[in-house]
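REQUEST
  id: r-88c1
  op: predict_structure
  target: F-box domain-containing protein
  payload:
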Amino acid sequence: MSKLNQDILLMIFEELHDDSKSLFSFLMVNKLWCETVIPILWRNPWSYENINYSNKISLFSIIAHYLFDSIKQFITNPELKLPLNSNLLFDYLSFCRSINVDNIRILISIGSSLPHNRFFMEEEFYYLLMKKCPDLKYLDMEVIKHQIFYFPEAKARFESLCKLICYTSIDSSYFYGLSRCCQNIQTLIVTNVNPNLNNGIVKLIEVQKNLNHIEWKDDFYDAHFTIDDDPYKNLLLTLEKKAENLSYLKIFFHYLENYEHYLFQMILPRFYKLKTLAIGGYLFFTQDQLNQLKMTVFNKLEMIRIDYNEFNRLDFISSIIENSGENLKKIVFRPNDIDHELYKYNEYSLNFIRKIYENCPSIEYLSIMLSPSKQHLAEFENLLKKCQNLKSLLLVIYNTDRAESYEKIFKNGEILLKILIRSAPPNFKEIRFYDEFKFSLESLEDFLRAWKGRPALSIITSDSIYEGINYKVLINKYKSYGVIKDFEYILFEDDIDYDF
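RESPONSE
  id: r-88c1
  status: 200
  body:
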């Protein structure tokens, strides 16, 4: 491996650009490996999950090298003994393509605990980044105090910005400033922490030329808006203008007024080029509005996620699948958010299963709810037989007709495991099961024994029965055989990752 030329090494390292642990280990192999991997590591050195930035003195020392002598006086931490006058092996900041404001703030705080000192060190560091960074691709700013777009060279740097993550707690004027120099953003992720719309964000969206990915999540507690009658009107109308280019739309609204519901329902069909659609929040529509939405077609849709709201009706989701299922690979919703008492629930759940196997030949990841009736289990087996690309299943069994005895629940589990053995697709490798869904020790062992020779299973459950000593012994036994890859018990269902 040490004899591979730099071009091949670069190709390999680029494939591992998200695997920081491996990349860091490559630094110690030899000089060539180190020279090849350093530019990759320093593209976005502020966002590695395995780094504790509040205690990363070695990273702070590199920053300290760049600071002018007049700024170094603000480094007051008595525990720091930095070789501030030695030469650096690389011009690290010249490789940087990103700014993560929060992690940079935490890192700079190593130098001093005094707010005044930290402010000037941060300001000088951003100034240097604007000079050194050839082009800026990524900016993550939860809170920012420095108007860095006014620094020399900043306009040229921000023209190349591709991804922006921000909070609406930042003053509108900051976004107005960004809108003058950032017009090529492709991905915009917004956390809205204020019930009053930040019009600076709207302006920033309006001027974008290449926006294809937008996420908006409300994160505040006030359900009612008091200042504007229609606080999201301008946002929705601006998004509508970008519909032709958007391939990813993730919208979690806390609350929409009546007019905004109507407006959202009217503009949603315009996003017909979407590949990913995620909708959530407290969205409530009249039956007529829902009927209109059921007619919406997304010809390129590959992933749909529905979180708790009025959309979370199986009949509505089934309509989206029927109209737009050809390319769908992932259907994600929180099964426990579905109203189990909904009139005709059993009918809707059966229809949902049928719509999937009739319209989604490419489905790979699926959330589904079952009643343990013979008809539901038969249709579930049809789904497994016809959806041959299915890899992962989030499955909830819920009986709307009556409470089942433990004996009956175990019997239902046994039947379902036999269906999986008979009909699971060849690449099926993960199942998540919740609620009225239990396997006896004997049934589970029969299933695992029969699963030998297939892809190793990852199993996730919220049922504490599998924490019992006999179950743990069985699970560990089949882990050692390579039948089980992972077996995870999650205590709280709210902690379950519904995105697969």
